[in-house]
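Allow me, if you will, to draw on your knowledge of protein folds for a short while. I have a record of one protein: its chain in single-letter code and its fold written as discrete structure tokens. I remain grateful for any guidance, and I place the record below:
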Amino acid sequence: MIPPEPTPALNRLLDSLVSNAFYRAKLAPAGAFRRVDSLADFAHSIPFTTKSDLVDDCAQHPPFGSNLSYPRAHYSRFCQSSGTSAGPLPTLDTAESWGVMLDVWDKVYDHAGLRADDTLFFAFSFGPFLGFWTAFEAATRRGNLSIPGGGLSTRTRIEMIARYQATVLCCTPTYALRLGEVLRNEAGHLQDQMRIRLILVAGEPGGSIPATRAQIASLWNGAIVRDHHGMTETGPISYETENQPGSLLVDSEAYYAEVIEPATGRPVDPGESGELVITTLRRLARPLLRYRTGDLVKPVWGVDGLLMEGGILGRCDDMLVVRGVNVYPSALEAVIRKFPEVVEFQVRHRTVDAMTELEVIVEPANSADVELAHRIQVALSNAFALRIPVTTTAVGSLPRHEFKSHRWISE
């Protein structure tokens, strides 16, 4: 299927901004309140939007900011992004804009192979993050039995998955590994009762890393692992398709995507990686124009739109330059996860004489494996042409995470 030409949708978006104070102020200086004739015209006349712009706007127009295209009484949904970069950001949605995001989730589920008789278990806390709520409501709207797993211990969640015969698990890659570890080590008697056949992951690059996917599958009796991604600011953006495993396809009906050089803002050259930029085509109640996501991707443009090869490679600001070599967390994890003996790991980085130094600490499943650290160090050297020290730590000593991991520690 060839995606529709986005220019008419972009003009509808621009037309909808007449009452949006944030974009009226942002676009007026550039004379951009007009119809665009082409994608090049759009890129030339519309400035980027950043998370800092939105956070600053909320500070100037508390509590929700001025990026609202309708009176506040029209909005019924509240979510909030994390404060990992520019600070926490509240977002409001109308019933209509919320429904747009549920439509995208339908595609996530369709391409993952969700069946009408599947029972889904959502193993997360149901905090203010948008992805939790949209995923759950999209599943219930489809008619699937959906079990919320908020406010529970890991062990209790495993017991519920077994007791209620859940067939689909939704969580982060890190937590899929953690649940599988506890199932194996503390609840092995429930293995025969498990019916999980599909695991939908998001929130971290690990979902598209082959070695991480393989480790998740091995802990869950060979379950299929499917990745997707989105942001509270934008909603669900992309999904994995059966014929392109390990990559993510942007929904071209809901989003216009660009990939730019982070430093210059220019489109990346073919074969190069860059920063994903998203314009929301249908979430008109709280739109985003040329939003710099901070996600690093390798674009492959085709008849279906933008395919992000290897999924989300990492965050643009997560890259470290170690003795002239670009090292991304996802690339390092891809090497470490090839060793199934590793239960958890941590990377510590520091600056010594203006140079970045890395150290990897791995927690083995079995403390008797005295050669594990050396074998991983050799693998990292082969992958990056760097000497990265690797040490092992005691079994059970590294922290476990129920949502996104925090494995990279700055010292």
About this structure: The chain is about 30% helix and 30% strand.
